[in-house]
Specification:
Elements: E1 8-9, E2 15-16, E3 29-31, E4 38-40, E5 42-43, E6 46-49, E7 55-56, E8 60-61, E9 67-68, E10 82-85, E11 96-99, E12 101-102, E13 106-109, E14 115-116, E15 120-121, E16 127-128, E17 131-132, E18 135-136, E19 141-143, E20 153-155
Length: 157
């Protein structure tokens, strides 16, 4: 069995690790001496993934992959309804969801962009409740808004 130089693996040192001998596994993991595949770092210093440890693991982001953002079952941050941004303070290491607010992406709110902004309804939060002079339902009721709402007015009694 050979003792391979940095960045090489295999019984004959014939396998090149991702990132090569200059920067194996992009400095975010170690190269398995037998298979030549990267075993990516998974610690408080960063959660790296991908074939060459060059991408953040699902739910992590930032220049060092050490900020966490909640993801849904499909692996999308902010439920796919917003973008995860870095907090002003680095102490929490938790990203903050900036919810989308547009006719094409929907009008979302909530800590994880999980519900429609008041006055919008539908599965994609793209439909606006009926308004008149800035008041929903002409000021005489409330709109059934939200992802399960139908946009109808419920009049005050």
């Amino acid at each position: 069995v050979c003792l391979c130089l940095r960045g090489y693996a295999g019984s004959a040192c014939n396998l090149v690790c991702p990132g090569g001998n200059i920067n194996p596994c992009n400095g975010h993991g170690h190269c398995d001496v037998h298979s030549g595949t990267c075993k990516c770092q998974d610690s408080a210093a960063g959660r790296w993934g991908g074939i060459a440890c060059s991408a953040c693991q699902t739910g992590y982001f930032g220049p060092h992959c050490n900020y966490y953002c909640p993801v849904n079952a499909n692996g999308k941050p902010c439920n796919g309804n917003g973008a995860c941004t870095l907090p002003e303070s680095d102490s929490t290491l938790r990203g903050i969801c900036s919810c989308y607010l547009s006719p094409t992406t929907g009008y979302w709110k909530g800590p994880e962009c999980e519900t429609c902004l008041t006055g919008y309804y539908g599965l994609a939060c793209t439909k606006a409740c009926p308004t008149s002079t800035y008041y929903a339902c002409s000021g005489h009721g409330v709109c059934r808004d939200g992802t399960t709402g139908d946009g109808r007015c419920e009049c005050y009694s």
